């Protein structure tokens, strides 16, 4: 192209407020404005929740709210300590279950599994994250709760904080496995080679070199697992009994409890707007949001330090002798606390089946086993440890098959043409789920129409335009906070902002915006990562031919990054299809005998319909399992298509 043609090809500058702004700069500012939407959403969530919490602070008082032990809003009692304690108990039990299973599975995948099995095992473990939480809750209600009731001596009901911890532990597994496996795999190979060269066995290398080196990432996995458990709504609401009381004694695993998220989901739709009860629930939501915000910030800090530690271009900071001595002491304290925690868990679980004296004997036996294992020969210890890790991996896979196969085997007989195309009858006991399927599809399409343009534009800005400025760091932090915000908080925000403030009422459009904000971080992250993976040589070639930066992005970069963008969009569809808490405050009704009207009307949706059937229509056995199977197949098919697409294009492009 001649110089004259090149000049004609370039875009002319704009005059804005007396200043000359080139088109690329104008596009940059426009993209930055769109990317800032994530920050605006976070500030809006905080603002709406805070504004609606302030009246409760003035009326109830923080001291009464946090120290009061009686939560009976209908009688004017707003003591939230029992609800907060229930949240801590369920979360603690979930991590006590998920961390050893998740870490063991991660070690097996990274260090022991044959190379050709590593990706399938990791992918299989991640299937847990694709199962909607309401399906977990349904499985817990019809399988876990009866099992506990029939097999724990003296149990008067199966709905308990143990049932909630079991379900939340299973739900936290994919997060802990994925993050821990990444952390363990990132430990330099030289660490392993040096240990083996000094005569250590593989297990000694794994337990004394690799795992300690990856402890920051493992800690981040545990923290993220805590955040996942704290913010879960539907599963715990369906299996914990929802009694705002303190267990007596506190170690009574079979006592019913109520969590913060369950309290919000149960009571919010039943209280008058503007009442003290209404504002007290928003104060609970503020506490939940701040806790999750703290947990997510801590996990990001830990992960950032781990990346710096293994960054070959950045030499490690010199450590003083005092610092190293302190780390040795911290390590010994951590080891001691680990064994105390293990023995405490053994004792608490033993009390479910045995008297306290017998439980102490079982705990003492466990202590003797731990002590004796330290005197085993290294080779025998390695065999024992590797067998244990293989058993843990088998348990994780078995849990997945148990949940999926229970839904499939018991749900298949309910599937028929009439069930798929019919309308519900007799309150949901008979008929079909056609309105719920159509409503779910409507929610998905509207959510994608709003979230995908915002997410893709924001991802492009962060990948190709954003510099490391204070504003950009705030945008990234806002996206991370959005990704970790509990879905029930999005539901409350949608209720306060769209249903009440913008006067949209319970409607399809209110559900669209609420779900769009929920899935926005997924689209932004996958788009940014996909754009960054496009080889820089392609961009240079386009710019060298005279294309502007925006033309390069739209005609070269985006087509090359298209598979990743589509993958992110598909994953967002899967999450939108399986969410219950956000739409139960904004968009859905339990029962419709005819299709709704326009976007200002509420709809039925598969997740909420399953919750309604499981908790209100206990004798609708076939309807429950049929709805659960349709929802499970829909969501897993969406996630599977995203995985297949990602693997196909990653092999094809091989960047």
CATH topology of the domain at 81-268 and 288-312 and 380-414: MetI-like fold
CATH class of the domain at 81-268 and 288-312 and 380-414: Mainly Alpha
Q: Extract low-pLDDT stretches.
A: 1-21
- Strands across the major sheet, in which order? 1-2
Give the amount of beta strand, in percent: under 5%
| Radius of gyration over all CA atoms, rounded | 27 Å
- According to DSSP, the number of beta strands is 6
CATH level-4 homologous superfamily of the domain at 81-268 and 288-312 and 380-414: MetI-like
Overall CATH architecture of the domain at 81-268 and 288-312 and 380-414: Orthogonal Bundle
Head-to-tail CA distance between termini = 30 Å
Q: Based on Cα principal axes, name the global outline.
A: globular
> Main sheet, how many strands, which sense, barrel?
2 strands, antiparallel
Mean pLDDT: 83
**What is the number of helical segments per DSSP (H or I, 4+ residues)?**
27
